[in-house]
């Protein structure tokens, strides 16, 4: 009975933080009843890996809110340890453990969207790595957002992030096209005056705003599909100030906890729980759990990569080991070895490239032997192999 109790806790328990304290863990009663009901009706394996895949399949196939909340509970623990890890590596007077945790847990849907059962070891392992990467990216973005003036931010933001921010703000495609043209005109004229790489770029002059407006008015006839009114310098300035605000909000969103009580409730997280009718899915997953083929394949890849690692130079192996197995940063490795950070980065890139090339050759050779024909390299698979290699280096013990 003990394993089943542990499974029930994993899929129904959430972390709560009081001021300046570590996490407290509390159970959502409805989720607890849901998972206990599934456990009582099933003769499935009592492993969290099985049940995480079970709820993931339901969520992926039906966008089921119940399944998503079970996954959210399950991912509390990897998010907590990722937050702990980040707290050790990044000193901050502004953020506590609870802040890092909330930054990460707000990205649960992104974690679930990125998980691929056929490529990753399991959801918890994938989530631990993904939470670390997301938190690092959030911190990097937040630093950029706060040290920049509006004009520096508008100068350095990419077109992709620019459009994403305006879509997130609720603008229509026509409105985005107008703001985007004003932004391009701003960049064209403002960068001419401020070609340096400083972050605290000064505010444009009234003369420059008028020049930007004039350029916009000339370009709008050919660049915009629908007609738009002429702008003056003051209106262009207002547009771009609003745009900078939207970009900051997009890059630095307000993080709401998943466990905040809903209006009218006294306990966190009350959800309507629909009847669970997924016996065919359960049967399918049990069959998958009993299949050894995928496990055997992973073991073959593991053994091959161990052999490939031995072919690397001692220098390359040492850098890989320090980065992936000892979890040191590139800067820490550089200090230990008496090198600069660029040297470490190049060694890591070279090592990964060699291993990825060898893995690709090995898989092509394996497929050829099974199918009896030459298998052409598929560029679309390289990204998947690279992600799998990254996960293997970080998770598996190979030294």
UniProtKB/TrEMBL annotation:
- GO MF, one example: sigma factor activity
Query: Highest taxon of the source?
Result: Bacteria
Please list every transmembrane segment annotated in the UniProt record, as residue ranges: none
Outline the extent of the RNA polymerase sigma-70 region domain: 308-351
Q: Which InterPro entries match?
A: RNA_pol_sigma-70_dom, RNA_pol_sigma70_r4, RNA_pol_sigma_r2, RNA_pol_sigma_r3/r4-like, WH-like_DNA-bd_sf
Q: Per UniProt, which keywords does this protein have? A: DNA-binding, Sigma factor, Transcription, Transcription regulation
**Which Pfam families does the UniProt entry name for this protein?**
Sigma70_r4 (PF04545)
GO BP terms: DNA-templated transcription initiation
Q: Which PANTHER family match?
A: RNA POLYMERASE SIGMA FACTOR FLIA, SIGMA FACTOR F FLAGELLAR
- Name it: Sigma-70 family RNA polymerase sigma factor
Q: Which organism is it from?
A: Iningainema tapete BLCC-T55
């Amino acid at each position: 009975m003990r394993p089943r109790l542990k499974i029930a806790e994993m899929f129904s328990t959430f972390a709560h933080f009081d001021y300046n304290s570590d996490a407290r863990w509390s159970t959502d009663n409805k989720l607890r009843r849901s998972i206990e009901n599934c456990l009582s009706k099933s003769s499935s394996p009592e492993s969290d890996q099985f049940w995480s895949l079970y709820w993931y399949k339901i969520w992926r196939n039906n966008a089921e809110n119940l399944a998503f909340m079970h996954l959210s509970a399950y991912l509390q623990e990897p998010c907590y340890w990722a937050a702990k890890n980040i707290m050790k590596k990044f000193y901050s007077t502004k953020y506590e453990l609870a802040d890092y945790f909330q930054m990460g847990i707000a990205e649960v849907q992104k974690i679930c969207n990125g998980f691929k059962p056929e490529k990753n070891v399991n959801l918890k392992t994938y989530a631990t790595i993904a939470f670390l990467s997301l938190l690092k990216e959030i911190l990097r973005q937040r630093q950029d957002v706060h040290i920049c003036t509006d004009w520096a931010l508008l100068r350095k933001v990419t077109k992709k992030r620019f459009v994403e921010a305006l879509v997130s703000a609720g603008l229509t495609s026509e409105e985005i096209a107008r703001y985007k043209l004003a932004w391009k005109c701003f960049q064209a004229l403002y960068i001419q005056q401020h070609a340096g790489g400083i972050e605290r770029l000064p505010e444009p002059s009234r003369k420059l705003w008028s020049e930007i407006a004039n350029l916009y008015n000339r370009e709008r006839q050919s660049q915009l599909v629908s007609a738009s009114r002429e702008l003056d310098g003051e209106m262009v300035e207002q547009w771009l100030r609003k745009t900078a605000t939207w970009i900051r909000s997009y890059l630095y969103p307000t993080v709401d906890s998943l466990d905040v009580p809903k209006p009218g409730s006294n306990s966190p997280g009350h959800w309507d729980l629909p009847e669970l009718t997924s016996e065919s899915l359960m049967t399918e997953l049990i069959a998958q759990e009993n299949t050894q083929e995928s496990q055997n394949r992973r073991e073959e890849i593991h053994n091959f990569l161990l052999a490939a690692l031995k072919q690397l130079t001692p220098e390359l192996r040492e850098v890989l080991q320090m980065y992936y197995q000892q979890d040191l940063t590139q800067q820490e490795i550089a200090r230990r070895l008496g090198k600069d950070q660029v040297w470490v980065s190049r060694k890591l890139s070279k090592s990964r490239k060699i291993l990825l090339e060898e893995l690709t050759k090995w898989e092509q050779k394996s497929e050829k032997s099974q199918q009896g024909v030459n298998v052409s390299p598929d560029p679309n698979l390289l990204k998947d192999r690279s992600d799998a290699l990254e996960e293997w280096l970080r998770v598996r013990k190979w030294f």
